[in-house]
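TASK: fixed-backbone design
INPUT:
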């Protein structure tokens, strides 16, 4: 019993040392994604406005839950929520569209107040956030992504479509994990 307690203490100390050095998980894998559609609600924003507290993303999430908008999305392909970033003006410093919704099997017969975006086919770096409180773990991951080199990501960012998956791992906002898919350019690493 004494040995297992000591072993556990060593593991805890090692984990603390790793955390204190800021070691983080990078790209977990790169996938080749076939195109798919996400239907939902869209805002146009940028990271500077979001960071300054004048953004639109938080309000969109509040409305989404307050009005139970997820239940009104027809032709849902699964139970996860999906966010699509698209129509980038430039890079992470420019404006972009942010669509909160769900993957759908068809874009026909969408309600009038709903729109859709197509996730473009291609290679995507997959990054899982740490497990923790939302939106902090998500924001921390995006800040890390903005600093990643093409070598870290497995290629240069395309700034065409990126997307996030909110599945059962993000059901508890105090203990959530989100999967981020960052689109990569096909032409060069």
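OUTPUT:
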């Amino acid at each position: 019993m004494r040995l297992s307690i000591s072993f556990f203490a060593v593991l805890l100390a090692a984990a603390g040392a790793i955390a204190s050095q800021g070691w983080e998980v990078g790209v977990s894998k790169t996938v080749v994604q076939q195109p798919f559609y996400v239907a939902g609600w869209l805002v146009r924003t940028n990271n500077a406005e979001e960071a300054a507290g004048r953004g639109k993303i938080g309000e969109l999430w509040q409305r989404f839950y307050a009005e139970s908008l997820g239940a009104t999305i027809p032709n849902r392909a699964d139970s996860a929520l999906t966010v699509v970033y698209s129509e980038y003006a430039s890079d992470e410093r420019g404006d972009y569209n942010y669509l909160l919704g769900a993957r759908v099997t068809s874009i026909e017969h969408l309600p009038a107040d709903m729109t859709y975006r197509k996730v473009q086919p291609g290679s995507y770096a997959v990054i899982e956030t740490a497990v923790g409180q939302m939106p902090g773990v998500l924001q921390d991951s995006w800040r890390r992504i903005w600093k990643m080199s093409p070598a870290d990501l497995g290629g240069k960012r395309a700034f065409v479509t990126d997307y996030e998956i909110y599945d059962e791992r993000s059901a508890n906002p105090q203990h959530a994990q989100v999967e981020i898919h960052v689109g990569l350019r096909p032409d060069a690493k």
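COMMENT: The helical segments are 2-20, 47-51, 57-66, 136-147, 150-153.
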